Amino acid sequence: MTPREKKLMWLVFIVALVALVDFCYSAINEFKSQSLLVSKVQEAQTALDESRAQIIQLPMTAEAKQRLAYATEPLPSDPLVRPQVSFATSVLAGEQLPYLKASGYISMGSTQIAIINGGEYAEGDVIPDTGEVVKTVDDEGVVLSLPENGTERRLLFEEEAIPADEIVIR
User: CB within 8 A of 77, min separation 6: which ones?
Assistant: First the structure.
Protein backbone atom coordinates (compact mmCIF):
# COMPACT_ATOMS: atom_id res chain seq x y z
CA MET A 1 0.00 0.00 0.00
CA THR A 2 1.29 3.41 -0.87
CA PRO A 3 1.46 6.19 1.72
CA ARG A 4 -1.31 8.02 -0.12
CA GLU A 5 -3.62 4.97 0.07
CA LYS A 6 -2.84 4.61 3.78
CA LYS A 7 -3.79 8.26 4.40
CA LEU A 8 -6.99 7.80 2.43
CA MET A 9 -7.85 4.63 4.37
CA TRP A 10 -7.29 6.44 7.69
CA LEU A 11 -9.46 9.34 6.49
CA VAL A 12 -12.31 6.94 5.58
CA PHE A 13 -11.90 5.23 8.98
CA ILE A 14 -12.09 8.59 10.80
CA VAL A 15 -15.18 9.68 8.83
CA ALA A 16 -16.89 6.35 9.64
CA LEU A 17 -15.99 6.76 13.32
CA VAL A 18 -17.40 10.31 13.38
CA ALA A 19 -20.61 9.07 11.71
CA LEU A 20 -20.93 6.30 14.32
CA VAL A 21 -20.44 8.75 17.20
CA ASP A 22 -22.98 11.15 15.67
CA PHE A 23 -25.51 8.32 15.29
CA CYS A 24 -25.04 7.23 18.91
CA TYR A 25 -25.31 10.83 20.14
CA SER A 26 -28.55 11.44 18.22
CA ALA A 27 -30.01 8.14 19.48
CA ILE A 28 -29.21 9.14 23.08
CA ASN A 29 -30.76 12.59 22.55
CA GLU A 30 -33.90 11.00 21.09
CA PHE A 31 -34.19 8.78 24.17
CA LYS A 32 -33.68 11.82 26.45
CA SER A 33 -36.29 13.88 24.58
CA GLN A 34 -38.84 11.06 24.89
CA SER A 35 -38.18 10.71 28.61
CA LEU A 36 -38.33 14.53 28.92
CA LEU A 37 -41.71 14.51 27.19
CA VAL A 38 -43.00 11.84 29.59
CA SER A 39 -41.80 13.87 32.57
CA LYS A 40 -43.51 17.03 31.17
CA VAL A 41 -46.78 15.10 30.82
CA GLN A 42 -46.42 13.85 34.39
CA GLU A 43 -45.74 17.39 35.62
CA ALA A 44 -48.82 18.69 33.81
CA GLN A 45 -50.98 15.90 35.25
CA THR A 46 -49.69 16.65 38.76
CA ALA A 47 -50.43 20.37 38.35
CA LEU A 48 -53.90 19.55 37.06
CA ASP A 49 -54.60 17.24 40.01
CA GLU A 50 -53.43 19.92 42.47
CA SER A 51 -55.65 22.55 40.83
CA ARG A 52 -58.61 20.18 40.86
CA ALA A 53 -58.08 19.50 44.59
CA GLN A 54 -57.99 23.24 45.31
CA ILE A 55 -61.15 23.89 43.28
CA ILE A 56 -63.05 21.09 45.04
CA GLN A 57 -62.23 22.66 48.42
CA LEU A 58 -63.82 25.98 47.43
CA PRO A 59 -67.31 26.67 48.81
CA MET A 60 -69.82 25.87 46.03
CA THR A 61 -73.52 25.36 45.55
CA ALA A 62 -74.86 21.94 44.63
CA GLU A 63 -75.40 23.08 41.04
CA ALA A 64 -71.80 24.29 40.78
CA LYS A 65 -70.56 20.95 42.13
CA GLN A 66 -72.63 19.12 39.49
CA ARG A 67 -71.19 21.29 36.74
CA LEU A 68 -67.67 20.69 38.03
CA ALA A 69 -68.25 16.94 38.13
CA TYR A 70 -69.61 17.03 34.57
CA ALA A 71 -66.69 19.16 33.37
CA THR A 72 -64.10 16.75 34.77
CA GLU A 73 -65.59 13.68 33.07
CA PRO A 74 -63.75 12.60 29.91
CA LEU A 75 -65.53 13.25 26.63
CA PRO A 76 -67.17 10.19 25.04
CA SER A 77 -65.62 11.01 21.66
CA ASP A 78 -63.17 13.44 20.12
CA PRO A 79 -65.05 16.70 19.44
CA LEU A 80 -62.71 17.61 16.57
CA VAL A 81 -63.47 14.47 14.53
CA ARG A 82 -66.35 14.74 12.09
CA PRO A 83 -68.99 12.10 12.92
CA GLN A 84 -69.67 9.48 10.27
CA VAL A 85 -73.23 9.90 9.03
CA SER A 86 -74.94 7.35 6.84
CA PHE A 87 -76.98 9.32 4.35
CA ALA A 88 -78.66 6.15 3.10
CA THR A 89 -80.67 5.80 6.32
CA SER A 90 -81.62 9.48 6.27
CA VAL A 91 -82.88 9.16 2.67
CA LEU A 92 -84.93 6.12 3.62
CA ALA A 93 -86.37 8.09 6.54
CA GLY A 94 -87.55 10.76 4.10
CA GLU A 95 -84.90 13.35 4.91
CA GLN A 96 -83.25 15.40 2.20
CA LEU A 97 -79.58 15.06 1.27
CA PRO A 98 -77.32 18.11 1.59
CA TYR A 99 -77.48 20.63 -1.26
CA LEU A 100 -74.90 20.10 -3.98
CA LYS A 101 -74.25 22.48 -6.84
CA ALA A 102 -73.09 21.08 -10.17
CA SER A 103 -71.57 24.02 -12.01
CA GLY A 104 -70.14 22.30 -15.09
CA TYR A 105 -68.06 19.51 -16.52
CA ILE A 106 -64.74 18.93 -18.21
CA SER A 107 -64.46 16.51 -21.10
CA MET A 108 -61.02 14.95 -21.58
CA GLY A 109 -61.35 12.30 -24.27
CA SER A 110 -63.39 9.46 -22.81
CA THR A 111 -63.15 10.89 -19.27
CA GLN A 112 -65.86 13.24 -18.04
CA ILE A 113 -65.21 15.25 -14.86
CA ALA A 114 -68.07 17.02 -13.06
CA ILE A 115 -67.49 20.17 -11.02
CA ILE A 116 -69.58 19.77 -7.88
CA ASN A 117 -69.38 22.31 -5.03
CA GLY A 118 -66.10 23.54 -6.52
CA GLY A 119 -64.47 20.07 -6.51
CA GLU A 120 -63.70 17.91 -9.51
CA TYR A 121 -65.17 14.39 -9.55
CA ALA A 122 -64.90 11.70 -12.23
CA GLU A 123 -67.15 8.68 -12.60
CA GLY A 124 -66.70 6.38 -9.61
CA ASP A 125 -65.48 9.12 -7.25
CA VAL A 126 -67.16 9.52 -3.85
CA ILE A 127 -68.44 12.94 -2.80
CA PRO A 128 -67.33 13.36 0.83
CA ASP A 129 -70.23 15.66 1.84
CA THR A 130 -72.89 13.03 1.10
CA GLY A 131 -71.15 9.69 0.52
CA GLU A 132 -72.68 9.52 -2.96
CA VAL A 133 -70.80 8.01 -5.90
CA VAL A 134 -70.65 9.78 -9.26
CA LYS A 135 -72.36 7.33 -11.60
CA THR A 136 -72.44 9.20 -14.92
CA VAL A 137 -71.52 12.63 -16.25
CA ASP A 138 -72.97 14.05 -19.47
CA ASP A 139 -73.41 17.50 -21.02
CA GLU A 140 -76.64 18.22 -19.08
CA GLY A 141 -75.79 17.02 -15.60
CA VAL A 142 -74.46 14.32 -13.33
CA VAL A 143 -76.11 11.22 -11.82
CA LEU A 144 -75.21 10.46 -8.19
CA SER A 145 -75.91 7.17 -6.43
CA LEU A 146 -75.90 6.10 -2.77
CA PRO A 147 -74.14 2.71 -2.66
CA GLU A 148 -75.92 1.58 0.53
CA ASN A 149 -79.40 1.52 -0.98
CA GLY A 150 -78.98 2.37 -4.68
CA THR A 151 -80.90 5.65 -4.46
CA GLU A 152 -80.02 7.89 -7.40
CA ARG A 153 -80.47 11.58 -8.08
CA ARG A 154 -79.60 13.77 -11.03
CA LEU A 155 -78.00 17.20 -10.65
CA LEU A 156 -78.39 19.50 -13.62
CA PHE A 157 -75.56 21.91 -14.33
CA GLU A 158 -76.35 25.45 -13.20
CA GLU A 159 -75.32 28.35 -15.35
CA GLU A 160 -73.76 31.39 -13.74
CA ALA A 161 -73.54 34.77 -15.40
CA ILE A 162 -69.96 36.01 -15.35
CA PRO A 163 -69.73 39.79 -14.85
CA ALA A 164 -68.12 41.56 -17.83
CA ASP A 165 -65.37 43.05 -15.67
CA GLU A 166 -64.17 39.54 -14.70
CA ILE A 167 -63.73 38.34 -18.29
CA VAL A 168 -60.07 38.42 -19.29
CA ILE A 169 -59.08 37.98 -22.94
CA ARG A 170 -55.46 37.00 -23.50
Answer: 83
